[in-house]
Amino acid sequence: MTSLDKRPGEPDGRGAIEISGLRKSFGTNEVLRGIDFRVGPGEVVCVIGPSGSGKSTLLRCVNLLEEPTSGSVNVVGVDVTDPDADIDAVRRRIGMVFQSFNLFPHLTALGNVMIAQRKVLKRDKAEAGRIARENLERVGLADKIGSYPAQLSGGQQQRVAIARALAMGPEVMLFDEPTSALDPELVGDVLGVMRGLAEQGMTMLVVTHEMSFAREVADRVVFMDAGAVVEEGPPARVIDDPSHERTRTFLSRVL
Ligand code: ADP
Ligand code: MG
């Protein structure tokens, strides 16, 4: 079984995200105003919503890059807001892909995918190299393992970043607008890799403006505005037949 195979059942809640009553303020600015939702094992949930609505902050609370002001966030069966939780151990089980790829410019694609495996997971060079090759192949970059970031297109660099996250064997993948920085002709390859992961049963929480991806790949779509979930449901309902005026207004701008 590889890290990408579906984990059926998961009675202990592993592979899932459960958020309840999540609030986050920066000073007096309340950015998340009581968020509740769940991503079940193997589910793909897309979060959509206008800029500034709190989508990145939500993802950062799931990954503990931000500390929630109140509420609970349970990831892969661990309540990450519990002061006794081993946050580093949980973080290793969550893969995160950002809009900016943040590859090391002085390392090849292979080196970029190996480095965290070596430093964080303490894998030896041979094993880290083998797993890096496997994952670069999985994102369609078998022929680019020796290339440096500057020799790769934005879409290829983002695929290296996805391979880097996958090489850590995550149970959950978080994506924050992974294609927003790409030229339009490069978006499809990255979305294709993400679609493949979804088909292999990866649990995914994806912030995106790519409505066709959300429509075709997401099990559920969550529309956020002003720090709250306005509506959520199957993509065919939320995207094609929204219940709320705010959702309709947002969609009329992005579709
Ligand atoms: P989105 O990803 O939906 O565009 P963000 O989560 O990035 O929204 O931001 C939501 C709000 O939180 C914005 O008003 C932003 O200015 C504020 N914010 C985000 N991060 C910080 C921070 N580290 N310090 C202060 N304010 C922040
Ligand atoms: Mg954002």
Automatic annotation (TrEMBL):
Q: Has keyword Repeat?
A: no
Cell compartments where the protein resides: Cell membrane
Q: Which GO terms describe its cellular component?
A: plasma membrane
Catalytic activity annotation: a polar amino acid(out) + ATP + H2O = a polar amino acid(in) + ADP + phosphate + H(+)
The source's superkingdom equals Bacteria
> A single Pfam family, by name?
ABC_tran
Membrane topology, as annotated: Peripheral membrane protein
Q: Name all ABC transporter domain ranges.
A: 17-251
Question: Which UniProt keywords are present, listed alphabetically?
Answer: Amino-acid transport, ATP-binding, Cell membrane, Membrane, Nucleotide-binding, Transport
Is ATP-binding found in the keyword set?
A: yes
Any GO molecular function: ATPase-coupled polar amino acid-transporter activity
Q: What family does the Swiss-Prot or TrEMBL record give for this protein? A: Belongs to the ABC transporter superfamily.
State the name under which the record lists this protein.
ABC-type polar-amino-acid transporter
